[in-house]
Amino acid sequence: MGMQDVYSGFAVAMMVIAGGTAIYGFFAMRERVPLASREQMQEISVLDSFKNAVKNKPMFILMLANFFNGFKSVGASTESFFWLHNTGSLANGTIAGLFTGIPNFIITPITPKLIHKFGARNTAIGAGIFGGIAYTLMFIIGYAPFGSYSGAERYKNFSGGSGVANMVYITIMLTICGLPNCIIRVCQAVLQGDVYDYSEWKYGVRNEGLVATVSNYFTKLANAVTDFSRVLS
Question: How many independent structural domains does the chain possess?
Fold first, then answer.
């Protein structure tokens, strides 16, 4: 049995599992909001629904934040280049990844308490500021503060005692820089729910479908821009 058979078998198995869970979810899950009656659906036209979505300021603020947040994926696309050409081995990225994700299991359960105390908006803003400061400090300090080389010897940055120290430094800094990501993801889900609640409070109509459609459009637009940025980088 070759690798092609292994990949094909794994793909078929995952397809069966995904199909089974989707069917189970279809019959087991219930709508949180009851479906509107025919009379309620006729109370507002499609044009009015679109106008309400356009006037939903929290939605566009959240979509704008998600749009700029998508540019972070450009850095992820250059990550392999960094590990290979700046540290000398892609394995260094694997080693760092074994540790950078561990604190997220601690931060995520704490996030609801932060939201309860400071609010979802303030928590997300604070997390973004914290991440910005951490990335700025890492940029100023550099990736090899315990010994740097030039020319062909730059691949030796992570060999020997100074290389181990550099690797430990990068792992710790990437862990600190990544901590706000989990907080922002939780806040994003909470704020997305607030967008639906705002629409219902402001216009008396909870039009989740149209809001989700506009949100998906901005997400695709952000992905298109970031994909183009990856090509340029």
Answer: 1
